[in-house]
Structures are given as structure tokens and as C-alpha cells.
Model the fold of this input.
Amino acid sequence: MKPSVSPNGVPGSGSFRRWIPAVGSPKTFFVLMGMLIVACIAGGFIPQNSEPSSYEAFYGAVGRVIVSLGLDDVFGSAWFLVLLSVSALNLVVCTVHRWETIRRQPGITIAHLAVLLLLAGGAVRGVSALRGTMSLEVGQTAWSFRGTSGEETTLPFSVRLDDFQIRYWDGERHVLHVFRESGNVRDSVLLSTGSFVPLDRAGLKILPLAFYPDFTLEEGGAVSRGEARRNPAWSLEFKNGATTWRQFVFARFPEFRSKSAPSGFRFYYEYIPGRVRQYESRLMVVIEGRTPLERTVNVNSPMTYDGYRFYQAGFDPDNPRLSILHVVKDPSVGWVYAGFFLLIVGLGWVCADRFRNSP
Amino acid sequence: MNASLLNSAFFFLLAAFVASLIGRVVDRPWRSWPGRWALSAGWLLLTVSLGHRWIAAGHPPVSNQYESTLFLVWTVAGSGLGLVAVSSSWEVLLPWISAFAVLGLGAMSLMDPRVAPLVPALQSNWLLIHVVTTMLGYAGFTVAFLGALRLLFLRGDPVGSRDIRRWDRLLDQACVIGFFFLTFGIVTGSVWANQAWGSYWSWDPKETWALITWLYYATAFHLRRSLGWTDRRFAGLMVGGMVLVLFTYFGVNYLLGGLHAYR
Done:
């Protein structure tokens, strides 16, 4: 049976005929684009997905309005998803409705198809993507990871962290700034354990005795609680002519004044951490005692196995043996990459057409 | 050395602005040449400065706001020279382009010029591709904006005159190029983000504002095609678009932060 066709070329009958042109009209398109832009501006200005109480603390009464309108999670809200869905429908109907015009411009057709693929990819991601975090110490093995909502997700294999390294562009530096009140003299010196360092302008000699990454005092004297730089401190010996004294300096407590130090001097210790060049994990996939994959993972170089990807996400400055990994399984990547490819091809075509048809 | 190069470039670009302005009022056959030569000299110095910084840093000079602004000024000045080389009728753009370059270099004096080693996330070949394509997009929109200003300042030209049509065509083409490269920049950024962080889209403030800019220009094209918004109305859209481009480029870094806050 042949379907009925309305005078404006829309198949179907009754309300469907009236509804389709309305959804696919240019006016609807401009209204939807305006709404999308306004929604994105709101989501772009207002910090997203923070604790509801933080909005009230920061914005006052307006914060309550933000939370009640769902503007604290614009891009995950139902109304934004409906807006995207209606935009996709508008794009489909517009394309079908104006097919005779559009088909003569392949670039525009391809670009529109690309946008639909991107939206479809977004939907696939929303429905089926898994993502979460895994923290491993060197030597540990994990069979699961913690999802973004806090749920534990089991892997079909286990992952072992064989090694973890943090490399630096430059090492940490310890700088001692010395102020001598008489004559308003200032001087600075890099500290490292060894021999006396002369500070000629201040008229001092300094002997760095010991470095304490995490200083504390116990019965036996000063000790470090560990290697993490939680409370960096130095024990120093000073010579000023015939006078000699020892004292501690603390990066976190610059105002500390030692009773043993003579008056007229002030010492400030500045701890400058090294700049991280790269951090990388040596990972092993383990299945029933076998290791089908071993890989070094760093930022920009993930490991992929059985659809799961493992990304180097971070480290714990207080525990140099702990590696933090992101785990992702996202079937939408293929859709989105296909959309990206078609978008570039389509817009490249449009560009070429614009210049080809230029008088 | 880099500071001396940029100071010299600033001097030549300022000279290009003054000379091309004078060229608009002097009725001599050589009137455009001083402006062109000065802009060319300024652009060459910017080229040397970029190359010097690349060698000194050991990575492409696009890793922070200072370097990307230098690249943007270089691209816009180069686009101006290219347009004038294609047709001398675009000489009228020279004062605007020189002024933009002078303002860009002036803004750079407020930024941190230090060369710093790359943080782990930026150690990727995508850095060059992503920033260059995005900056080319911004450069296209900047040329469209400068052309729009010129079109809006045309006095006494009835709508649809030959001069208006010519400027309207420049706006359209510059905007299409800008849109193509902005899209390319967003795409390369997404692919890079997926490789580095495992997510091609995170609604980071920079991503969100790049999308807003993209939606705005897509709407501008549809207004042009579907509702016939050409000439002055399209020029108005290009001026509005530049506000979004500037906010996406500068404003987000300083006001909103996020994953792209490399100052």
C-alpha cells in the first residue's frame, strides 16, 4: 500500500504531518541552538557536580536556587539530555525535509551525519561506559576498581603493579635566606649536607648537618617520621667569627627563632620541590597465572586489554610506591571517532566548495 | 634575546599601523608599501622569535598563554600579509591587523614569559597539532572580526553594493576557515584527552566554552543560509563571536580554571 503524502512532501497523516515540519523547521532549530548555548553558558560558569552545600556556602541564597533548578549538574540533567535528543531529531527531520537541496552539497550532508554520530556516541557512552579508579602499591594485585559512583566493579582479569617510578626535570632544592639586621644584609645559599658554606656578605659560615623530610622530636632527639616532605627541616651549624651555634630551620614554620642563635640574624628556609617530568607504572595483566600483557603506562600512553584501558592518573606525594590509575571501558569511542572523521571531511568539503564557488 | 626580538617586532608592527593609516589618506601609488614592509618586518621578527623560543625550550612554543598568544599574533599578521598578497584590495585591512598585533604583543607583556619544562600531560605530539589548529581557528575568526568592523564602518554604501558584497564574502570565507580549524582543534583536543585521561569529553570549562563558540558560529552560518543574514547583520554576528572567542581563549584561563589553565 502506498503511503499518503501531504502537499509539503511529508509522508504520514494527521497530526504526524503537522508535527514533523514543526520539529524540523529552521525556527525550531534556532530556538534549540539558543537553548543549548544558554544551557552551556550556565554549565560553563557555574562549577559542576560539587557538593550541594558548597553552592549555598559560596553563592548564598542563589546557591539554593542553583541546586533546586539542577544547574549544579547541567550536563547530566534529564532536561539537558532531552534538549540534545530533540536537537538530534531536529537535525534528522531538517536533513530529510530538505534532502533535495542538501544532497547537492555533500560536505553539508556529511557534516550533519557526523553530528548525529557524535550524539549517538554520547548516548552509547551514557548507557554503557564504565570508568573508575584503582590505587596500587608496588607489588600489589587488583581484580576490581572503584567506579565513579563508589561501586566496586570486577575485572575479568587481574592487574599487578610491578614497578612505579617518578622522574623529575630537576631535583628538589633547599634554599636558606639569611638576613643580618645590622647593615640590612641579605644573602641566600643552597643547602646540601657536606662542608661549611661561606656567606661572605652576612659574615657567616654554615655547615648543613642533617635533613629531616618529616621532622619530629622524640626522646632521643630529632628524627624524621618518613621520607614524605610533610615537615621539611634542617639541622645547621653556624660560625660567626669565634661564635658557633647549632639550630633547626623549618620550611613550614619560617617564624621559628632558635634560642641558641645570636640576635641580629634571621634565617628562612625555603623548600622547593622538584618538577615532575613523568610518572610511570609497570603493569602486568594476570590470568590464571599467565601474564599475557606487560606494559609501562604513563600520562599519554595507556595500556589496553580486553576493552579496558588503564591510564596513569596520579601519585601520592606522601607515598612514592603508590600509583593511581584510571580504568575505562567505553564502547562509544569508535562512534565518536567516526563522527570526528566525518566532521573534518564534511567541513573540509564545505571549505573547498566556498572557495571554488568564489568569483 | 627573545625580549629584544619582540621589542623590535612591536616597533615594526606599531610602525605598520601608523604607516598603513597614513596610507589610507595619502593618494600616491606607493602609499601601501611602507605599511606592508613594516608589517612584513614585524612578522619576520615574530617568526624568528618563535623559532628561537622553540630551540631554547626544546618543545613547540605553544605550551602556555604567553606562547600561544605569540603564535596567534603571528598567525593573524601572516594572514593579513597573505590576504594582501592575494589581492591589493585587502590593503584596507592592514591598519586593523597591525593594531591587533600591537595589542596582542602588549597583552603578552602582562603574562609570564618564562620558558618552563613541560608537565607530563603536555608531553605529546598532540600539543602542537591541537594548539596550532585551534589558534588557526581563532585567527580565522579574528580576520572575520576585523573585516566585520571594516564593513560596519563603511559609510554611504548602500546594502548590496559591490564593496559590501566583497567584504561580506571575505567575512564568510574567513569564518568558514575559522570554523573548520576550530572544529579541527576541538577534535584533536578530544582525541588527545582520550589518550591522556581516558575521556574525550569532560565538560571542562575550556571544552564547554569551545563548544559554545562552535555552536554560535554554526548558528551564524545557518542564519546566513536559511534566513539570509548577510552583510551588516552577518558582520554583527562576527563581532559578537569575537567576544566569545576572547572569553574562551583568555577569560576561561583566568576566571574559570580547569584542565586547560596553563598560564
Notes: The two ends of chain A are 49 Å apart (CA to CA).
